[in-house]
């Protein structure tokens, strides 16, 4: 739970940064994309580098499983033993051929879900976590809205088989993937190319169905991915890739063919890597605005067009603007006034000094009283001895 809270807090901070969310006039010309919806999201900065119908609600097919997986990882126990029901065994579509009564760890089900796109694994996960697919969908939707912060998603099942109201957007899927990739357990499974599978009735090697992950279409920077298809959704892809300058998430929805889905994805990855870079501003970095001092409360990230001169300026309200050519705003951040931190330090220091002074004063008073008592005793003893003489 502590890890979940930390992941949620970090995620919410990144998404509260006020950043440019679409390619601007200083950015290079975007590629031509055939898929009906698409997006490139830079994961560190949260900047959208390209979008096409990114807020249009569409059917995601098996990209649903990204949400199911991260929800299960964060709310379940990967070592839990799950007993497979007949309902899970009999689900339609792609499966890992689970048997009724078969006992499988939650982690293994997640591997079957993401690597082999097992719908039966999805139902088994849902029933284990929430008791039923219907309750799981309700729980998942609340999680997606309240924890990740997506607004245009409604899932009716854990696997993505068609239901009329089972919809999301390219932007929401990119944000869900962005959030999920902060979890190392998710990253590991999402990027797995192949896995030996020992099931009760199926022993095989699972291979990722995503051709860029599997290496069937070579792309060195790719770190993970999920594909999907049902008749109503067309071909769908979610892909993650990174180099030393960018951490990209690409989503394409409703492609008319598998070839077009991959072609568009590669074009978008090329566009991102060839034209943009991400830089950071370190936590605690200070800025001066006409005598007013401000600092960054955490590390900040901004994504900018390669070979463009970047400028930074802070106004008296503590707003830092990163601008490019012709003053175009690339990113904007609210900084923390230095006097707030300084005042807190002064109060802390004063409290310590006062505490030490109080302790010293009490100690001094006691010492003086003791010395005075000894002196008086010596004087009395002296006079008594004098009288005896």
UniProtKB/TrEMBL annotation:
The keyword Cell wall biogenesis/degradation applies. The chain crosses the membrane at residues 357-383. The keyword Zinc-finger does not apply. GO terms for molecular function: serine-type D-Ala-D-Ala carboxypeptidase activity. The active site is at 62 (acyl-ester intermediate), 65 (proton acceptor), 117. Residues 28-255 form the Peptidase S11 D-alanyl-D-alanine carboxypeptidase A N-terminal domain. GO terms for biological process: cell wall organization; peptidoglycan biosynthetic process; proteolysis; regulation of cell shape. It holds the Pfam family Peptidase_S11. Keywords: Carboxypeptidase, Cell shape, Cell wall biogenesis/degradation, Hydrolase, Membrane, Peptidoglycan synthesis, Protease, Signal, Transmembrane, Transmembrane helix. Substrate binds at residue 226. InterPro entries: Beta-lactam/transpept-like (IPR012338), Peptidase_S11 (IPR018044), Peptidase_S11_N (IPR001967). Belongs to the peptidase S11 family. This is D-alanyl-D-alanine carboxypeptidase. It comes from Bacillus oleivorans.
